Batch of 2 targets.
Target 1
Amino acid sequence: MKILLLGKTGQVGGALTPLLRQLAGSAADEAVVTLGRADVDLSDAAALAQAVQRAQPSLIVNAAAHTAVDRAETESEVAFAINAVAPGVLAAQAAKLNALLVHYSTDYVFDGSQRTPYRESDPTHPLGVYGESKLAGEQMVQASGCRHLLLRTSWVYDSTGRNFLTTMLRLAKQHGKLRVVGDQHGSPTSAAMIAEASLQLIRSMLNQPAMQGGLYHLTAQGQTTWHGFAQAIMRKAGLDVPIEAITTADYPTPAKRPAYSVLDSSKLQREFNYRLPDWQQALDALPALSSQQAA
Ligand SMILES: NC(=O)c1ccc[n+]([C@@H]2O[C@H](COP(=O)([O-])OP(=O)(O)OC[C@H]3O[C@@H](n4cnc5c(N)ncnc54)[C@H](OP(=O)(O)O)[C@@H]3O)[C@@H](O)[C@H]2O)c1
């Protein structure tokens, strides 16, 4: 089995790499091709198609994306090239090769006006360019006819790299106190959890050729705010810093974000018989945190 992973340097891509090597089995080094931006730029559609043709995979996992939500507002063309055109290229190649495509999307396809967890069937209405470009990517994958898993996740973090968790540790270390938005609600989801769940879903799809796949919400269970998440991070790191809850209006950003983007992941749990952990359990499962991990 030949596996192609895009986005090897990202949070989810990094967590997926060892798991995909496990999946590939003994001839792992030859069987898993992992690519980063230096190997192929996703904004170059022709180069991307060639990279897939060279690898001839039976499984393509796309963990690469333009994830800079604020920067996307002024880089719309690049964001669409990476988040919409590139998944379309991968999906067309997957259809040609009869390969399974795993692609990730986001809670930011919703506008946040609901107050109950969003289901896959709920109407989308992104508030910014990032969400618009990711939604366009979903549509490209769905239109291609390739066998796929389209996995919407949310508030992704890891214990290393640059993300909300490591940023909070850095700011706590620098300032000894934090001010964090307390009126946006969502489900923090660790890259490790996404990778582990993805692996199980992929195994099910490979073992059961009749399974169609499709669009699924994949997040940790439960919900909090960025403020609540920051409190939990500080507790886990053993840091006692005051954390003031501020409003979205107190912290203006170029991109508008949904006030509520909790996703209902029950379809995935039911169809794949897979239990997703609570967000606090997943945070607890990370190795010990220290302010050394600050980014
Ligand atoms: N982060 C979140 O909070 C969040 C929330 C919901 C959904 N998601 C989705 O989950 C998936 C994984 O996200 P993540 O947090 O793991 O992303 P990430 O850590 O930001 O990593 C993104 C990856 O994409 C690569 N990339 C970006 N532009 C590229 C280009 N032009 N050519 C080639 N590679 C490029 C990056 O390479 P470099 O390292 O070279 O930049 C990196 O490997 C994405 O589909 C994302 O939209 C993320």
Target 2
Amino acid sequence: MKILITGGAGYIGSHTIIELSKIPGFEIISADNFINSTPETFSRIKKITGREIKNYPVDLTDFNAAKLIFSENPDLAGIIHFAALKAVGESVKNPVLYFRNNLNSLVNLLGLSSEKKINYFIFSSSCTVYGNIRNLPVSETTPLLKTESPYGFTKLAGERLIEDFCLSNPLFNAIVLRYFNPVGAHISGTIGELPINAPNNLVPIITQTAAGIQKKMFVHGTDYPTRDGTCIRDYVHVSDIAKAHVLALQHLIENNGNANFEIFNLGKGLGVSVLEVIAAFEKISGMKLNYEIGPRRAGDVDAIYSDSSKAEKILGWKPLAGLEEMMGSAWKWQKVLSGI
Ligand SMILES: NC(=O)c1ccc[n+]([C@@H]2O[C@H](COP(=O)([O-])OP(=O)(O)OC[C@H]3O[C@@H](n4cnc5c(N)ncnc54)[C@H](O)[C@@H]3O)[C@@H](O)[C@H]2O)c1
């Protein structure tokens, strides 16, 4: 069965290619224009899996370029759609860029899926769709509050678009996965998060600071209504997230004909503060991190963590890695990248 992974050179896409490659019977192609990644990721994937992945370096917002992938692969059966821009702060500064990139690419893929009769679709969503929620942990039935950023809105609108598409196409089967905070790197240290610009997520900021790429880092806000005043998030290992995609794809295939639109939270269910993440890093690395307290960042919610029992019950998903393993693998990857 041939599966298109969009954003296959990206952080979660590349880890998902590795996990899906372990399952017999799947052929994988990718579409990634390297707006936030590099082609080298595919050589790294080959080192781990022995597989050469064909990538189409197209911008998926370009309908004709996207269409070519479908024409050249008439046997395509499903799509795992990762490709999107994901920096909350950048989306606040440039909402049009985010709406255009994240929504036009999805519209194109859904249009082409309908034309080419592709029936399996997995969408990368985010816990950001819950907004600044007070009622924790959040489950899939928790009512959504206003999204705090244009990025969050693109995820919410994407979910809605897919839900409506499923209603009008009963043969189309989609799963929306709402990730909490994917961190860490492949156990081999061969691939991991590779921010092209200055990273916006906490863990690569920590590892880049420890590696000396950034002189110091800022903790954005210590006046949040949380136990130590810093933001609380639900960190989950990227390979655990990747495995959830394999399970979701198998669920879609096996359950063909049942509920054709489902949403799953993917988090560990533990709220961890920024200062606690820093402490875990300092423990595993034996280093003292150079950080300062800075102002809040636009678009950040106070605290969020997941009730992921639905994914456990229905998909059989259980995130295994703990915080120290997440930080250890992220640091191992950073050391490979920085030649330390
Ligand atoms: N990493 C996180 O913390 C996180 C959390 C929640 C949701 N998500 C979502 O998961 C998905 C994957 O995230 P990631 O962390 O792997 O990001 P990433 O930036 O590492 O990967 C995304 C990939 O998509 C590609 N891409 C973006 N726009 C494209 C376009 N128009 N055409 C072709 N390729 C394009 C980029 O080059 C990149 O390689 C995204 O949809 C993101 O919004 C990520």
